[in-house]
Amino acid sequence: MTQPKKKKKKRTRLLPALLLGVLLGLGADAWLQLNAALPIERPTTVELESGQRLSSLSRQMEDRGLFSSDRQRLYLVIYARLHGEATRLKAGEYALEPGVSPLGLLTVLTSGKILLHELRLVEGWRFSQAWKLIRADPNIAHTLGNADNAAIMQAIGKPGIDPEGRFFPDTYRFPKKTTDVSFLRNAYAAMDKILAAEWTARAPNLLYATPDQALIMATLVEKESAVASERPIIAGVFLRRLQTGMRLQTDPAVIYGLGDAYDGNIHTEDLRTDTPYNTYTRDGMPPTPICLPGREAIHAALHPDDSKTLYFVAKGDGTHQFSSSLEEHNAAVMRYQIKPHLHP
Description:
Blueprint: H1 2-35, E1 44-48, H2 54-63, H3 70-82, E2 92-96, H4 102-111, E3 116-120, H5 127-136, E4 140-141, H6 149-155, E5 171-175, E6 178-179, H7 180-200, H8 211-224, H9 231-244, H10 251-258, H11 268-272, H12 295-302, E7 311-314, E8 320-323, H13 326-338
Parallel strand pairs: 4-6
Antiparallel strand pairs: 1-2, 3-5, 7-8
Helix pairs in contact: 2-3, 7-12, 8-9, 8-12, 9-12
């Protein structure tokens, strides 16, 4: 009768040992799996939606082949819950590099260091060009649809303002799903800030009554030359023309006024066709900016040179010849435009 009791006691002592062995084995396996590299061969991204749980995201990643096994994924979810990491996840899009482990993934998802995308608005572009680029960007949440300019400005809180020239050309970095309204507000605020700073530091005794007038001039300067050293000279030419009652006679403004009718070449008839932007037929500056001006152009408009030049003509190499008299200007036109082959 005593023999069976001994066997029972022996089995009872074995159970804790077996259980401990199983737990140690699972722990070792979990440690190995949590520190093993995910099967990511090239940089990739994952996106944690607002309110999404790690279990849901990890299943999506597993469907994409970003876990070596379901076991590796389950260990991560359990670890995150046991250590309180599951409640510290921050929504957003994250970049993952080859070699990252599940624990490394968890560090990324709780860091808040979300991936930022880039979009560049180019100096000299029209607003329509910038808006086309914004609308085509897949990382921007498009809420404005086919809104016209008036509706766009209404949406960003600037009703009644023409959008041309109001958005600072720069490279913007933003998280995925930034709305088009938010993006435009940021670009508008950037232009406001820079224009205000340049206006405060402007040269004395300028003709501009408001910063908006300086902005219009900056757009003319922006379109007339890409050479930084020439911009203050061009601004000086235009301001002296206004002071002496001359018309600005700037082709970029005429082209802007032609709109879709512009065929890539400016013709004599175009210079005679009156529009609000034809500075050959109308006095003063155009009614609005004609492009997105960069800071250099804004600075030049507010710090024009003080020479006596009144004319300039393109030399064909990206620069201009500046003249103080009509006689000098006509000679420069002959040399660089009409008979450039005679002057190597």
